[in-house]
Amino acid sequence: MKGILGRKVGMTQIFDEKGEVVPVTVIEAGPCYVTQRKTAARDGYSAIQIGYEEVPPRKLNKPLLGHLRRHNLPPLRILREIRVKEDEPYDVGQKITVDIFSVGERVDVVGTTKGRGFAGVMKRHGFRGGPQTHGQSDRQRAPGSIGACKTPGRVLKGTRMAGRMGGRRHTMQNLKVVLVDPERNLLAVKGPVPGPRGGLLLIKQARKQG
Amino acid sequence: MNNALLQSVEAVEPNPNIPELHPGDTVRVHARIVEGNRERIQVFQGVVIRIRPGGGANANFTVRRIAAGGIGVERTFPLHSPRVEKVEVVRRAKVRRSKLYYLRDLKGKAARLKEQR
Lengths: 210, 117
Description:
Chain A is mainly β. Chain A contains three helices and twelve strands, in the order E-E-E-H-E-H-E-E-E-E-H-E-E-E-E. Chain A has helices spanning 40-43, 62-69, 121-125, and strands at 3-15, 21-29, 32-38, 47-54, 76-83, 95-96, 106-112, 117-119, 163-165, 169-181, 186-190, 200-205. In chain A, a hairpin with a 4-residue loop joins strand 10 and strand 11. Chain B is mainly β. Chain B has a single domain (14-107), classed as SH3 type barrels (Roll), CATH 2.30.30. Chain B is built from one helix and seven strands, in the order αβββββββ. Chain B has one helix spanning 3-10; strands at 26-35, 38-52, 60-67, 71-78, 84-91, 93-94, 114-115. In chain B, the strands form two sheets. Chain B has a five-stranded antiparallel sheet, with no helix packed on it. In chain B, strands 6-7 form a two-stranded antiparallel sheet. The A-B interface holds A 7-10, 12-15, 18-21, 24, 26, 28, 179, 184, 186, 188, 197-198 and B 1-3, 5-6, 8-10, 12, 32, 34, 55-58, 78, 80-83.
């Protein structure tokens, strides 16, 4: 398993090698550092901890600085874990850059979706709302019926209603890598990814290849 | 967020076979069409009714042509598309706006444009 942390730059479109226009999301990713190795023997599971985004040391607290300084790492703002197999060769202090990925490869991109607050049923679940005409009042964005009558006499669990939308972790699977630029730490994948511009993203090798 | 970075990704070599176009130009666009593994060139002749600027692959232009039976057909090509073999400007017309959408409502004699000299 390989992965890297990055920030969404934005979407645009580019020509592929066939001359076709492809919609892409540009991601500024890495360089990341392996900051800790977790093993089944010591931690109960096997993973690497990677750090991203160098900041002035005054921006970090002492415990975090100490954790990084132990392996002579630069002050890094963001730490995340990636599950790896026990036998994968990762060393603490190792630098991870975008060139771990190559063009044409498939990746999963994890991010936090844009928060939409308390959203109605039309926005949140794609309901159609009520009729716009024929003497209707107060029904234009209403959910309609949410259940039957005496039987069951209650609203079923899981019934789709209004509520908080977005702002949750979401994974886009199997996105094609269309551009890798190690010089500028840039990566572009086909299609959209979760979150606003500038949002933190975790890019991993695709789980379901194909 | 970082617009300069985005633009650097979008930037493409302009297609040298596409000359400078203006709205109102009558053009012959030689587009390369890929069908399976065969490639052929299709010519589309019509009036440029709009040019949308933008960086690299974002820029495009739309050509309107009146096909058989008086049916209007519009095709949009990326301005720097590597799929465009060449563009010939047949005629330049004098127009007073940048988007010639009004041509869609006109037909026959009324849809003519005055030639630029």
